[in-house]
Design a protein that fits this description.
The chain is α+β, with helices and mostly antiparallel strands. The strands form eleven sheets. It has a four-stranded parallel β-sheet with strand order 2-1-26-27, with helices on one face. Strand 26 (531-537), helix 16 and strand 27 form a beta-alpha-beta unit. It is globular and about 110 Å long. It starts with 6 loop residues before the first helix and ends with a strand. The protein binds ligand ANZ and zinc ion (ZN). The site of zinc ion has 8 residues, from loops. Zinc ion is lined by residues 441, 443-444, 483, 485-486, 488, 490.
Length: 828
């Protein structure tokens, strides 16, 4: 041990040793219970940022802690390495995407290694390499064979200038994020995964999850958006067909005063044909097509519409109801048509006011009688039915069932459950992604690429022009192929898969990353799965976490794995904030992890990020905090350095003769208890680190009085302190451990070092008796813990009932404390 704490030297030393001896490499053969600890893998943008430091430090603490708790821990790392930035780099810098990506991975791998993270690097998974993406293709084909991958026309956000599809997130206020051209809705042939087939199971299985943030579950529930209601048919006047609507409020059926259909609904054009309205309707549809759906259907958006010229017939009253086209009705939800009840639906209410359509109250509030004139907004709460024929006087909740039943008997409607969840569109007109393994043959139609011809490799002869469209179309060699069935000339699918496909199963691949015959080796997967603890950002609450849950269920049904839920427990860490905003390049408030690690070392960086906030809360950056963590580690180092000679002739001892040593012992046991509880319950790393600092204060206090020093007890405390510190600041912990001469290293699986345990008996305090005097005369006695603070002893003395009598009606001038002996109260 050097006299000076130099993280650069010791961190390199221990990282090399851990790596060379493969301490964190695991197989499937152990008597210990397994624990699979996983953090969301990064996109290799080129450099790690503080957000990475935070999430990977959290994961590493959990992994190391669980090892010390006797678990056989799988802790892997990899790269989510397909995606648009590589393509943009290719356009801007003329580097091939593969080269750009692999260089970035190499650089980031070194940065992660410098953090001292306990990964089994032999299991590294890189999604942009054929040994990984071939299985994306394999899954695609299997899903296609089961009808869970299919192609259909659908409307997508389209930038006419970039000639490409945009994700919803890439549309900003209706404009393209890249060129600010107005985005239009374009109908394209796209591949979909049928996630809706699992909607009910995805919802129901929320109950089977372990510790997941309530917020994430709520967001998923809203995203899936289950609605129970009815489908009701409204015959069209003078036509054979009917408009079918989906409603969650069949109780309001008598309040329908018009119908609204989506502009994309083909009926819109059909119904207005040959009416004076035809041209108006056509123009309106064109205008709405230009708006993005998010804006158009938001609550605050203006309600707009146009009359089609056609009428529907009310299924119960037989009255004539005008059919309108309205901007807020979506084609993809329900039936793309709505029965409008302006008295009880706010959007319909606003629409009616704007276009002077009648409003008919059919649910009466128990508190106030509303009529068309007194209603200033829709009445949406439950109430009693009125103006509803035979259903008058029935409570609205009950009427839902009654009216539906009535319609069903009459063949005019049926019960219906709807989900907001849509099938997952996976086609991307991009280069840097997994080629979709499909072939189009003029004779045989759509054909899957046979298994023995996988992987379909990404071609390298593709020019990057930035013009948009599918870059793979530009590769002649790629797009021209032969039909797997008839061998005639055929065309390959030139779209690639959404990169969310890659991250939907990487956690499965980690269990057997080198398997060439299977996506996952069934035995190994059965041993490791599910992930026991998953750690990642809340921004993935819906898409990634829902897709991964869907994939797990679909792959279970394909017989690939046997579990149905991938992540037993989920921890979502907060953001790293500086000067009130999330750290980002554009805000210019970035702290570079490289600088931090070079200046202070990885242990300080980790300790600070764990200490500064509970993991699920945002972490406010603070330079003094970093300095403070660094000073703490220095202080610790100096104490161990000062005593290292002593340890050679001293054994650790949990027995003590002196009361002072017993105070230290008790504090040690209390700290072990406290930190263990913090780790087990919601991972309260910040309070765990605070407890460590507190224990160390007791240590420095203790050694400041060398006369009463018991070296055995001190060694006992310092030994436990290192173990408690080791998940947080592993490098310095190994070094300190070595200085104690204990069998090590701590993280050598062969040493089998375990997390300290406390003795409940040792938590009880020694007590002492304090004499209480009033004006120098003995008036009482007090029993207090041996390490009670002066202030609390004085307070107890003053509150003693006997003493109160003696000082009654007197003025307390002074309270004198003689350490561990007496309290004298001076009163006049
Ligand atoms: C009549 C009605 C009366 C409605 C009332 C509501 C209140 P959730 O709960 O989200 O499922 N709706 C149906 N399909 C629609 C579409 N494609 N685009 C826009 N709106 C649509 O909402 C179901 C309700 O949303 C349905 O119930 C329908 O309006 C509307 F007092 O029908 B309701
Ligand atoms: Zn063919």
């Amino acid at each position: 041990m050097d006299s000076k704490y130099d993280p650069r030297v010791i961190e390199k030393k221990w990282q090399t040793l851990w790596t060379d001896r493969k301490y964190f490499k695991v197989d499937e053969d152990s008597d210990k219970p397994k624990f699979y600890c996983l953090e969301m893998f990064p996109y290799p943008s080129g450099k790690i940022h503080m957000g990475h430091v935070r999430v990977y430090a959290i994961g590493d603490v959990i992994a190391r802690y669980k090892r010390l708790r006797g678990f056989h821990v799988l802790h892997p790392m990899g790269w989510d390495s397909f995606g648009l930035p590589a393509e943009n780099a290719a356009i801007q810098k003329r580097v091939p995407p593969a080269q750009w990506t692999l260089n970035n991975i190499a650089a980031m791998r070194e940065q992660l290694k410098a953090m001292g993270l306990s990964y089994d690097w032999d299991r590294e998974v890189t999604t942009c390499l054929p040994d990984y993406y071939r299985w994306n293709q394999w899954f695609f084909v299997k899903l296609f064979e089961k009808g869970l991958a299919y192609k259909k026309k659908s409307f997508v956000n389209w930038c006419p200038s970039c000639v490409t599809v945009l994700a919803n997130e890439q549309v900003e206020e209706g404009k393209c994020w890249r060129c600010e051209t107005e985005v239009i809705q374009k109908e394209l042939d796209q591949w979909f995964f049928k996630i809706t087939a699992y909607a009910e199971e995805l919802l129901a299985d929320h109950d089977r999850l372990g510790k997941w943030p309530e917020r994430v579950i709520t967001m998923q529930k809203n995203w899936i958006g289950k609605s129970v209601g009815a489908e009701i048919d409204f015959p069209l006047e003078g036509r054979k067909e009917a408009i079918t609507v989906f409603t969650t409020r069949p109780d309001t059926l008598y309040g329908v005063t018009f119908m609204s259909i989506a502009p994309e609904n083909p009926l819109a054009a059909v119904l207005s044909k040959n009416t004076p309205q035809a041209e108006k309707v056509r123009a309106f549809i064109e205008q709405i097509k230009k708006q993005d759906k998010e804006t158009r259907t938001s609550e605050s958006a203006g309600k707009e519409g146009v009359f089609t010229g056609a009428y529907a017939i009310h299924p119960l009253t037989g009255s004539k109801i005008p059919v309108w086209v309205a901007n807020f009705v979506l084609l993809e939800y329900g039936t793309g048509a709505v029965m409008a009840v302006p008295a009880h639906d706010q959007r319909d209410f606003e629409f009616s006011k704007k276009y002077h359509l009648p409003i008919k109250v059919v649910i009466q509030s128990p508190r106030q009688i509303f009529s068309e004139d007194t209603l200033h907004e829709a009445y949406v709460s439950p109430g009693m039915l009125t103006d509803s024929g035979p259903f008058n006087g029935i409570p609205s909740e009950e009427a839902k069932g009654k009216i539906t039943e009535f319609l069903v008997k009459d063949g005019k409607g049926k019960l219906k459950i709807n989900y907001r969840l849509r099938d997952w569109g996976v086609s991307r007109q991009r280069y840097w992604g997994t080629p979709i393994p499909m072939v189009y043959c003029k004779e045989c139609g759509v054909q899957a690429v046979p298994e023995d011809q996988l992987p379909v490799l990404l071609p390298t002869d593709v020019p990057f022009t930035g013009k948009g469209g599918s870059p793979l179309e530009e590769s002649r060699e790629f797009s021209h192929t032969r039909c797997p069935k008839c061998q005639k000339e055929a065309r390959r699918e030139t779209d690639t898969m959404d990169t969310f496909v890659d991250s939907s199963w990487y956690f499965l691949r980690y269990t057997s990353p080198h398997s060439e015959s299977h996506p996952v080796d069934p035995k190994k997967a059965a041993y490791w799965l599910p992930v026991d603890q998953y750690v990642g950002g809340i921004e993935h609450a819906v898409l990634h976490l829902l897709y991964a849950r869907f994939f797990t269920k679909a792959l279970r049904d394909l017989g690939v794995i046997s579990i149905g839920e991938p992540f037993s427990n989920l921890l979502t860490q907060g953001m790293v904030i500086k000067d009130g905003a999330k750290m980002s390049k554009s805000k210019g408030n970035i702290v570079d992890p490289d600088y931090l690690i070079d200046t202070y070392g990885s242990d300080t960086s980790r300790l600070f990020s764990l200490f500064a906030a509970p993991p699920e809360k945002d972490l406010e950056w603070n330079d003094q905090g970093v300095e403070g963590s660094h000073r703490f580690l220095n202080k610790v180092w100096n104490v161990y350095y000062a005593y290292q000679e002593l340890w050679k002739k001293t054994a650790s001892s949990a027995q003590s003769s002196t009361p002072e040593a017993r105070v230290l012992l008790r504090k040690t046991h209390q700290t072990i208890k406290k930190i263990t509880e913090d780790m087990e319950k919601d991972f309260h790393f910040n309070t765990a680190v605070a407890a460590l600092m507190e224990l160390f204060n007791t240590v420095t206090d203790y050694i400041s009085r060398p006369a009463t020093l018991d070296p055995g007890v001190l060694k006992f405390t310092l030994r436990n302190f290192v173990l408690l510190l080791s998940p947080f600041a592993p490098h310095i912990a190994e070094e300190l451990w070595e200085s104690l001469g204990e069998p090590g290293p701590i993280f050598d699986p062969g040493v089998n070092q375990s997390w300290p345990s406390y003795s409940p008996k040792a938590l009880v305090a020694d007590e002492m008796t304090i004499v209480i005097q009033v004006n120098g005369k003995l008036r009482g006695k007090l029993t207090v813990p041996f390490d009670a603070e002066q202030e609390s002893i004085k307070q107890s003395a003053l509150a003693d009932s006997k003493i109160l009598e003696w000082v009654q009606n007197k003025n307390i001038v002074k309270v004198i404390y003689v350490e561990k002996k007496l309290v004298n109260i001076v009163a006049t």
